[in-house]
Each structure stands twice: as C-alpha cells, then as structure tokens.
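Homework help board

Subject: predicted structure for assignment chain

Our instructor gave us this sequence and asked us to write out the predicted structure in token form, then describe one feature. I got the tokens but I'm not sure how to describe them. Can anyone check?
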Amino acid sequence: MFDHIVGYAEIKRHLKEDIKQGTIQTPLVFSGSPLSARMTMALELARLLHCDEHGAAACSCRRCVQHQLLRNQELYIIGERSTLEDIHYFLKALANAQGTSAQAHGETISTENHNKRRNTLKQMVMLRLAIFLKRFDTIILSKKRKSQVETVYQQLFECLHTPLSDEFPISLESIHRGVNSIAAYQTPDVESIRLVQEQCYYRGSNKHKLVLIENLNTLSMTVMHTLLKFVEEPPESLHIIATAQERPRHAQNLASRFHWLYLSTRSDEEQKMVSTSYFGKEASSLQALLVDADTSTFVEQLCDSFFVELDNQNGEFWRLMHTMDLKKSEEISLAILKKLPSKATGKYAPKLPALIRVCKESLQNIHERNVSSRSAIEEVYQHVK
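My token output:
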C-alpha cells in the first residue's frame, strides 16, 4: 500500500491503518503543490478501496488489473490535470527510443533491453494518457463537450488498447497535438457533474463507486455549488477523493465537507529519488526536469493555450505560467513572444498584424529598457484581446 510513492511516511501510515480497519474518511482531499504526488496518492487510494484482495502489493486481482489503465467502470474522474508536461516528456522520450537502435551513447545495449526500455516508456505514455482521458468518458460528458472532443478522444482512446509490441494507431506527434487540442475542455460544467451524480446513484455492482476530483480549487463557482449538494447527500455506496493545490477561497462550505491531508514539499533527496525512478534522470526539481526536457514543446503548448485563453478565458496558459519560477518564466515568456506571430493562423489570422506589432515592440522594450518578458506577455495579451 502506497509503497511506490516516495515520502509522506506519516500520511501513508495513517491511510494504511484506516483502510485495514475500514475507517477511511471520505470525502477526502490530498492537498499540495504541483508534482507533489497528489494524484498518485488519490489513484492508489482508489485502487485500494476497490481491490478484491484487500490492498495486496502488486495485486493481480481483476479490479487492480482494470485499474492499471483506469478501465474500472466504477471510477469517475473530473477536473483539470495539474500538468500535461509529463505526457509530452514521455512522448518525446519514446520518440527518441524508437528513433535509435540498440547501440546508444557508444555502448552496445542488448536488443532485449532496448525493447524493454521502449515498452516501459510506452507504458508510461499510456498510463498518463489514460489519466488524462478518463475525464472525457462519454458517459459523464455533457452533449456540448462531447461534440467538441469526441473525434480526437476516440483517436487517443484507441492508443490505450494497443499491445506493447505494436505501434500506436496514430503517430506520437498526433497524440501530442490531440492532447493539446482537447486540454481546454477538461474543466467540468454543471451538466457533467449531474451526469456523474446519476451514475453514482445507479447501483450497478456490489462495489463502491468512486469519484476523483482533480484540482478541486480550480472548479467554477456554479460547479462547486452543484457539487456541494452532491457531497452533502451522497449515496451510501460512494467514496469521493479530491486533489487541490489550496483550499477554495470562495467555497468554504464545500471545503469544510472534506477531510484534508496536506502533502508537504518533498526534500531535494526525495525529489531526486522520484526523478531517477520515474524519469531516469536525477533532478532536485521535477518541474524543471519536465520543462527543460522539451522547452520547444512547452512553448508550443503555451502558445496554443494563449489563443484558447483569448477565446474563452478557460485555457491553462496563466496557470502553467504561474507554476514556473521567475527565471524559467522569463525564459519561456521570451520564447513565446518570438513564436506567437507564427501561430496566428486560421481564425486567429485577423489578429496577426496587431500581434506582430505588439510582440516586436515588446521585444524591443525587453532589450532596450530592461522590461520583464513576463510583464510583456501580459501586455500583449491585454492588447490583442
């Protein structure tokens, strides 16, 4: 139980005891900063609550096998992913592995080990893709959202059923683009919450249903209000688990209904253990590792999110910007200013003249007047909007 998760010994000990004694308190929130294992803890708890073998380590019971790629029909996920960089990181790593032979860095690697590494990377891509796609399950998706994401969702969903020995049905670049194209539609609306409620009140098996809410604090006020009624009067067979970066400031009534577990920032040594175990590289900052691994991909993603933000103020542009430290934010902002004009195509083409002019002025101000590139991005956004 929780043994694969680095750190948080005291929290894990209490959870193990509660599970064994059947006294687990839900609704429950794992709260902490991005990349603090909030979602990993929540998913492991969900697995343990459904396990037929009472939480055995490396369990191979039917429900735990289903849980590996989140095929558990009694588990529903709603809310926004904290980060998509992990998907892009492993997509790039897999592309590099597929583009190399068994001879790398001057060392001969056996074909067996080379294939094993590629399969491991593919499993990592599939797992993270499964976590992302679970919130787009058609059974809990409103009609409006379904029409917006259905085609791309089906293409990405087929990748989850690909044997490790086979190629994905679409290219890795198409997976990357597909994830970015539907990312803005993650945030649940009121209709989606009501569809989840309907499914939870329907008792289709003798197992508890589980609702996992990612980033509770980012939900809209109307969704939080709808969710409050659900949390106050849940069906007997339901467990609600959530993650959050902080307590929702404008929804204290909802926050007070949850039992909060706070995940402190991992030590540098623990961060290195996680980065080595999951990413094969030693780093004291997982955020830096993910961003530095593919800055160009990250800039592309942020440029796409910038235009989504212009449309409906519901993209993840500013949230992603706020997860970076000041130095990284300045570096990325400068790259975005240089890239944005080339991204103004299709329906955004009319904005191109203004975008070129404002980005050019901003770059001059950064160079000549030492203006912060982060501030320049905010001015460009306000001007073009």
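Reply (TA_rk): Your tokens look well-formed. For the description, you could write something like this. The beta strands are 28-31, 75-79, 103-104, 107-108, 209-214, 238-244, 259-262. That's the kind of observation they're looking for.
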